[in-house]
UniProtKB/TrEMBL annotation, chain A:
Family of this protein: Belongs to the small heat shock protein (HSP20) family.
Organism of this sequence: Camelus dromedarius
Protein name, UniProt field: Heat shock protein beta-2
Domain SHSP: 55-163
GO molecular function: structural constituent of eye lens; unfolded protein binding
UniProtKB/TrEMBL annotation, chain B:
Lineage, broadest ranks: Eukaryota, Metazoa, Chordata, Craniata, Vertebrata
Transmembrane keyword on record: no
UniProt subcellular location: Cytoplasm; Nucleus
Protein role: Inhibitor of actin polymerization.
Keyword Acetylation: no
Residue ranges occupied by any SHSP domain in the UniProt entry: 53-150
Species whose genome carries this gene: Camelus dromedarius (Dromedary)
Protein name: Heat shock protein beta-3
InterPro entries registered for this protein in UniProt: A-crystallin/Hsp20_dom, Alpha-crystallin/sHSP_animal, HSP20-like_chaperone, HSPB3
One Gene Ontology cellular component: cytoplasm
CDD domains linked to this entry: ACD_HspB3_Like
Length: 182, 150
Protein backbone atom coordinates (compact mmCIF):
# COMPACT_ATOMS: atom_id res chain seq x y z
CA UNK A 1 0.00 0.00 0.00
CA UNK A 2 1.38 3.37 -0.95
CA UNK A 3 2.15 5.75 1.86
CA UNK A 4 0.45 8.99 1.06
CA UNK A 5 -2.90 9.70 -0.52
CA UNK A 6 -2.13 13.43 -0.56
CA UNK A 7 1.27 14.07 -2.12
CA UNK A 8 3.95 16.09 -0.41
CA UNK A 9 3.33 18.62 -3.12
CA UNK A 10 0.09 19.75 -1.54
CA UNK A 11 -1.10 23.19 -2.77
CA UNK A 12 0.14 24.74 0.47
CA UNK A 13 3.72 23.62 -0.08
CA UNK A 14 6.42 25.12 -2.18
CA UNK A 15 6.61 21.98 -4.26
CA UNK A 16 3.22 22.46 -5.79
CA UNK A 17 4.48 23.42 -9.17
CA UNK A 18 1.43 22.61 -11.17
CA UNK A 19 -0.40 25.93 -11.01
CA UNK A 20 2.11 28.10 -9.25
CA UNK A 21 4.41 30.47 -11.02
CA UNK A 22 7.95 30.42 -9.73
CA UNK A 23 7.97 34.19 -9.66
CA UNK A 24 5.38 36.37 -7.95
CA UNK A 25 5.44 40.05 -8.69
CA UNK A 26 4.12 42.99 -6.75
CA UNK A 27 5.65 42.09 -3.43
CA UNK A 28 6.39 45.66 -2.58
CA UNK A 29 3.44 47.32 -1.00
CA UNK A 30 2.29 50.64 0.35
CA UNK A 31 4.01 52.43 -2.46
CA UNK A 32 3.05 55.95 -3.26
CA UNK A 33 2.63 56.83 -6.89
CA UNK A 34 3.16 59.97 -8.85
CA UNK A 35 0.89 60.62 -11.82
CA UNK A 36 3.85 60.06 -14.15
CA UNK A 37 4.45 56.61 -12.63
CA UNK A 38 1.26 55.33 -14.22
CA UNK A 39 1.85 54.07 -17.71
CA UNK A 40 -0.48 53.58 -20.62
CA UNK A 41 -3.26 51.10 -19.81
CA UNK A 42 -2.91 47.63 -21.25
CA UNK A 43 -5.22 44.68 -21.31
CA UNK A 44 -4.76 41.91 -18.79
CA UNK A 45 -7.23 39.04 -19.14
CA UNK A 46 -9.74 41.41 -20.64
CA UNK A 47 -9.36 44.13 -18.04
CA UNK A 48 -7.65 47.45 -18.24
CA UNK A 49 -4.65 47.59 -16.01
CA UNK A 50 -2.22 50.43 -15.78
CA UNK A 51 1.33 49.25 -15.33
CA UNK A 52 3.36 51.26 -12.86
CA UNK A 53 6.79 52.60 -13.55
CA UNK A 54 7.71 51.42 -10.04
CA UNK A 55 7.09 47.82 -10.96
CA UNK A 56 10.05 45.86 -12.14
CA UNK A 57 9.75 43.98 -15.38
CA UNK A 58 9.71 40.25 -15.92
CA UNK A 59 12.86 38.45 -15.04
CA UNK A 60 13.96 40.95 -12.44
CA UNK A 61 13.99 39.98 -8.81
CA UNK A 62 13.07 43.46 -7.69
CA UNK A 63 9.62 43.56 -6.16
CA UNK A 64 9.16 39.84 -6.44
CA UNK A 65 9.15 36.57 -4.62
CA UNK A 66 10.87 33.85 -6.57
CA UNK A 67 11.03 30.17 -5.78
CA UNK A 68 13.55 27.77 -7.24
CA UNK A 69 13.19 24.12 -6.56
CA UNK A 70 15.88 21.99 -8.05
CA UNK A 71 17.03 18.47 -7.28
CA UNK A 72 19.53 19.42 -4.64
CA UNK A 73 18.46 22.81 -3.44
CA UNK A 74 15.53 24.83 -2.21
CA UNK A 75 16.00 28.49 -2.99
CA UNK A 76 13.79 31.52 -2.53
CA UNK A 77 14.38 35.14 -3.37
CA UNK A 78 12.29 37.82 -1.74
CA UNK A 79 12.41 41.55 -2.18
CA UNK A 80 12.67 43.21 1.24
CA UNK A 81 14.15 46.42 -0.05
CA UNK A 82 11.76 48.54 2.00
CA UNK A 83 13.43 47.29 5.14
CA UNK A 84 16.88 47.58 6.62
CA UNK A 85 18.69 44.33 7.47
CA UNK A 86 17.97 44.58 11.19
CA UNK A 87 14.27 45.00 10.51
CA UNK A 88 14.02 41.64 8.80
CA UNK A 89 13.81 38.36 10.68
CA UNK A 90 13.92 34.89 9.21
CA UNK A 91 12.98 31.82 11.23
CA UNK A 92 11.70 28.34 10.71
CA UNK A 93 8.80 26.85 12.62
CA UNK A 94 8.69 23.13 11.93
CA UNK A 95 8.69 23.07 8.15
CA UNK A 96 7.54 26.65 7.75
CA UNK A 97 10.06 29.25 6.72
CA UNK A 98 8.89 32.62 7.96
CA UNK A 99 10.21 35.94 6.78
CA UNK A 100 8.82 38.84 8.74
CA UNK A 101 9.75 42.46 8.64
CA UNK A 102 8.47 45.70 10.03
CA UNK A 103 9.73 49.21 9.95
CA UNK A 104 8.54 52.10 12.08
CA UNK A 105 7.31 55.29 10.61
CA UNK A 106 9.82 56.92 8.32
CA UNK A 107 9.87 59.50 5.62
CA UNK A 108 10.04 58.59 1.97
CA UNK A 109 9.49 60.75 -1.07
CA UNK A 110 5.71 60.54 -0.74
CA UNK A 111 5.32 61.09 2.99
CA UNK A 112 5.42 59.11 6.19
CA UNK A 113 5.00 55.38 6.03
CA UNK A 114 5.29 52.35 8.26
CA UNK A 115 5.09 48.80 7.02
CA UNK A 116 4.91 45.27 8.24
CA UNK A 117 4.63 41.91 6.54
CA UNK A 118 5.09 38.24 7.19
CA UNK A 119 5.62 35.72 4.43
CA UNK A 120 5.64 32.02 5.08
CA UNK A 121 7.10 29.45 2.72
CA UNK A 122 6.35 25.81 3.30
CA UNK A 123 9.58 23.88 3.01
CA UNK A 124 9.55 20.69 0.99
CA UNK A 125 9.51 17.56 3.11
CA UNK A 126 13.14 16.66 2.33
CA UNK A 127 14.56 19.99 3.50
CA UNK A 128 16.10 20.13 6.94
CA UNK A 129 14.86 23.40 8.54
CA UNK A 130 18.12 23.66 10.48
CA UNK A 131 20.13 24.00 7.30
CA UNK A 132 18.35 27.06 5.93
CA UNK A 133 20.73 29.91 5.16
CA UNK A 134 19.73 33.49 4.45
CA UNK A 135 21.73 36.22 2.75
CA UNK A 136 20.72 39.76 1.98
CA UNK A 137 22.11 41.38 -1.13
CA UNK A 138 22.95 45.05 -1.38
CA UNK A 139 19.80 45.80 -3.39
CA UNK A 140 17.51 44.33 -0.76
CA UNK A 141 16.88 40.88 -2.18
CA UNK A 142 16.80 38.21 0.48
CA UNK A 143 18.21 34.91 -0.67
CA UNK A 144 17.00 31.88 1.28
CA UNK A 145 18.71 28.61 0.61
CA UNK A 146 18.60 25.09 1.94
CA UNK A 147 19.97 21.81 0.61
CA UNK A 148 17.47 19.15 -0.27
CA UNK A 149 17.54 15.44 0.10
CA UNK A 150 19.24 15.30 3.49
CA UNK A 151 16.32 13.72 5.25
CA UNK A 152 14.99 10.28 4.72
CA UNK A 153 11.52 10.31 3.34
CA UNK A 154 10.35 6.85 4.36
CA UNK A 155 6.69 7.14 5.00
CA UNK A 156 5.60 5.95 8.39
CA UNK A 157 2.37 4.05 8.06
CA UNK A 158 0.35 3.24 11.14
CA UNK A 159 -2.75 1.16 10.60
CA UNK A 160 -5.35 2.48 13.00
CA UNK A 161 -7.45 -0.23 14.63
CA UNK A 162 -11.18 0.35 14.34
CA UNK A 163 -13.00 -0.71 17.47
CA UNK A 164 -16.64 -1.67 17.17
CA UNK A 165 -19.01 0.08 19.55
CA UNK A 166 -21.92 -1.91 21.01
CA UNK A 167 -25.27 -1.25 19.39
CA UNK A 168 -27.54 1.12 21.33
CA UNK A 169 -30.34 -0.65 23.17
CA UNK A 170 -33.63 -0.78 21.26
CA UNK A 171 -36.08 1.76 22.80
CA UNK A 172 -39.09 -0.56 22.34
CA UNK A 173 -37.40 -3.38 24.21
CA UNK A 174 -36.54 -0.97 26.98
CA UNK A 175 -40.18 0.07 27.33
CA UNK A 176 -41.33 -3.53 27.52
CA UNK A 177 -38.73 -4.28 30.16
CA UNK A 178 -39.86 -1.24 32.14
CA UNK A 179 -43.57 -2.23 32.01
CA UNK A 180 -42.86 -5.83 33.06
CA UNK A 181 -40.67 -5.01 36.01
CA UNK A 182 -43.16 -3.33 38.39
CA UNK B 1 -21.53 57.94 -35.39
CA UNK B 2 -21.22 55.72 -38.44
CA UNK B 3 -17.80 57.13 -39.19
CA UNK B 4 -16.30 55.85 -36.00
CA UNK B 5 -14.49 52.62 -36.59
CA UNK B 6 -14.10 50.56 -33.44
CA UNK B 7 -10.78 48.86 -33.84
CA UNK B 8 -10.15 47.78 -30.32
CA UNK B 9 -11.79 48.41 -26.99
CA UNK B 10 -8.63 49.76 -25.53
CA UNK B 11 -8.19 52.24 -28.28
CA UNK B 12 -11.77 53.38 -28.52
CA UNK B 13 -14.03 52.66 -25.56
CA UNK B 14 -17.64 52.57 -26.70
CA UNK B 15 -18.94 54.80 -23.94
CA UNK B 16 -16.98 57.77 -25.23
CA UNK B 17 -18.01 57.51 -28.84
CA UNK B 18 -19.76 60.87 -28.62
CA UNK B 19 -16.56 62.52 -27.59
CA UNK B 20 -14.76 60.94 -30.48
CA UNK B 21 -17.21 62.57 -32.79
CA UNK B 22 -16.36 65.95 -31.40
CA UNK B 23 -12.61 65.38 -31.54
CA UNK B 24 -10.30 63.69 -33.92
CA UNK B 25 -10.01 59.95 -33.44
CA UNK B 26 -6.24 60.04 -33.36
CA UNK B 27 -6.35 62.73 -30.66
CA UNK B 28 -8.51 60.59 -28.46
CA UNK B 29 -6.42 57.50 -28.77
CA UNK B 30 -3.66 58.80 -26.58
CA UNK B 31 -5.90 60.77 -24.25
CA UNK B 32 -5.96 58.76 -21.05
CA UNK B 33 -8.79 60.79 -19.62
CA UNK B 34 -11.10 59.12 -22.11
CA UNK B 35 -10.44 55.64 -20.86
CA UNK B 36 -12.58 53.97 -18.25
CA UNK B 37 -9.99 54.67 -15.58
CA UNK B 38 -8.46 57.95 -14.61
CA UNK B 39 -5.16 58.16 -16.41
CA UNK B 40 -1.92 59.98 -15.70
CA UNK B 41 -3.63 63.34 -15.71
CA UNK B 42 -7.06 63.56 -14.18
CA UNK B 43 -8.85 65.72 -16.67
CA UNK B 44 -12.52 66.31 -16.22
CA UNK B 45 -14.24 64.23 -18.86
CA UNK B 46 -16.85 66.86 -19.62
CA UNK B 47 -14.09 69.36 -20.30
CA UNK B 48 -12.15 66.91 -22.41
CA UNK B 49 -15.20 66.33 -24.58
CA UNK B 50 -15.62 70.06 -25.07
CA UNK B 51 -12.15 70.47 -26.46
CA UNK B 52 -13.21 71.82 -29.89
CA UNK B 53 -14.74 74.81 -28.11
CA UNK B 54 -13.20 78.22 -28.93
CA UNK B 55 -9.48 78.16 -28.13
CA UNK B 56 -9.69 81.25 -25.94
CA UNK B 57 -11.94 79.43 -23.52
CA UNK B 58 -9.91 76.26 -23.32
CA UNK B 59 -6.73 78.22 -22.65
CA UNK B 60 -8.39 79.94 -19.72
CA UNK B 61 -9.26 76.64 -18.07
CA UNK B 62 -6.30 74.48 -18.92
CA UNK B 63 -6.93 71.23 -17.07
CA UNK B 64 -3.28 70.45 -16.22
CA UNK B 65 -2.82 73.73 -14.38
CA UNK B 66 -5.90 73.12 -12.33
CA UNK B 67 -4.71 69.59 -11.65
CA UNK B 68 -1.46 70.77 -10.16
CA UNK B 69 -3.11 72.93 -7.57
CA UNK B 70 -5.32 70.09 -6.38
CA UNK B 71 -4.47 67.86 -3.51
CA UNK B 72 -4.27 64.36 -4.89
CA UNK B 73 -2.70 61.18 -3.64
CA UNK B 74 -2.06 58.06 -5.66
CA UNK B 75 -1.24 54.90 -3.81
CA UNK B 76 -0.57 51.41 -5.06
CA UNK B 77 -2.70 49.08 -2.92
CA UNK B 78 -3.01 46.22 -5.37
CA UNK B 79 -2.45 43.60 -2.65
CA UNK B 80 -5.38 44.79 -0.53
CA UNK B 81 -9.14 44.46 -0.68
CA UNK B 82 -11.36 47.53 -0.35
CA UNK B 83 -12.44 46.42 3.14
CA UNK B 84 -8.79 46.17 4.21
CA UNK B 85 -8.26 49.87 3.72
CA UNK B 86 -9.13 52.57 6.24
CA UNK B 87 -8.84 56.24 5.38
CA UNK B 88 -8.94 58.69 8.27
CA UNK B 89 -8.20 62.32 8.86
CA UNK B 90 -6.76 63.50 12.14
CA UNK B 91 -5.82 67.06 12.99
CA UNK B 92 -4.83 68.05 9.51
CA UNK B 93 -3.25 64.72 8.64
CA UNK B 94 -4.59 62.13 6.27
CA UNK B 95 -3.99 58.56 7.41
CA UNK B 96 -4.31 55.63 5.07
CA UNK B 97 -4.07 52.26 6.75
CA UNK B 98 -4.24 48.99 4.94
CA UNK B 99 -3.96 45.60 6.53
CA UNK B 100 -4.74 42.10 5.41
CA UNK B 101 -4.49 39.06 7.60
CA UNK B 102 -2.71 35.86 6.73
CA UNK B 103 -3.88 34.47 3.44
CA UNK B 104 -2.61 31.93 1.01
CA UNK B 105 -0.94 32.81 -2.23
CA UNK B 106 1.06 30.85 -4.75
CA UNK B 107 4.20 30.81 -2.63
CA UNK B 108 2.73 30.13 0.77
CA UNK B 109 1.15 32.49 3.25
CA UNK B 110 1.39 36.23 3.51
CA UNK B 111 0.11 39.03 5.71
CA UNK B 112 0.81 42.71 5.22
CA UNK B 113 0.00 46.04 6.72
CA UNK B 114 1.09 49.59 6.21
CA UNK B 115 0.17 53.07 7.33
CA UNK B 116 0.75 56.19 5.34
CA UNK B 117 0.44 59.76 6.53
CA UNK B 118 0.05 62.86 4.48
CA UNK B 119 -0.22 66.44 5.61
CA UNK B 120 -3.47 67.89 4.35
CA UNK B 121 -3.47 71.40 2.91
CA UNK B 122 -4.92 74.02 5.23
CA UNK B 123 -8.67 74.11 5.40
CA UNK B 124 -9.21 70.68 3.89
CA UNK B 125 -11.55 68.51 5.95
CA UNK B 126 -12.86 64.98 5.67
CA UNK B 127 -15.95 66.10 3.81
CA UNK B 128 -13.84 67.70 1.09
CA UNK B 129 -12.09 64.48 0.20
CA UNK B 130 -13.12 61.67 -2.07
CA UNK B 131 -11.46 58.32 -2.52
CA UNK B 132 -11.59 55.97 -5.47
CA UNK B 133 -10.17 52.48 -5.54
CA UNK B 134 -9.65 51.44 -9.12
CA UNK B 135 -9.88 47.78 -9.97
CA UNK B 136 -6.21 47.68 -10.88
CA UNK B 137 -5.27 48.57 -7.33
CA UNK B 138 -4.64 52.28 -7.49
CA UNK B 139 -6.17 54.26 -4.67
CA UNK B 140 -6.86 57.88 -5.46
CA UNK B 141 -7.66 60.31 -2.66
CA UNK B 142 -8.34 63.81 -3.83
CA UNK B 143 -10.14 66.99 -3.02
CA UNK B 144 -13.71 66.58 -4.15
CA UNK B 145 -14.39 70.04 -5.47
CA UNK B 146 -11.32 71.71 -6.91
CA UNK B 147 -11.06 75.30 -5.77
CA UNK B 148 -10.00 76.31 -9.28
CA UNK B 149 -13.46 75.81 -10.77
CA UNK B 150 -15.19 78.33 -8.54
Amino acid sequence: MSGRSVPHAHPATAEYEFANPSRLGEQRFGEGLLPEDILTPTLYHGYYVRPRATQAGEGSRAGASELRLSEGKFQAFLDVSHFTPDEVTVRTVDNLLEVSARHPQRLDRHGFVSREFCRTYVLPADVDPWRVRAALSHDGILNLEAPRGGRHLDTEVNEVYISLLPAPPDPEEEEEAASVEP
Amino acid sequence: MAKVILRHLVETPVRYEEQFEARGLEDCRLDHALYALPGPTTVDLGKAGAAPAPPVDSAAEMPPQRGESRFQILLDVVQFLPEDIIIQTFEGWLLIKAQHGTRMDEHGFISRSFTRQYKLPDGIETKDLSAILCHDGILVVEVKDPAGTQ
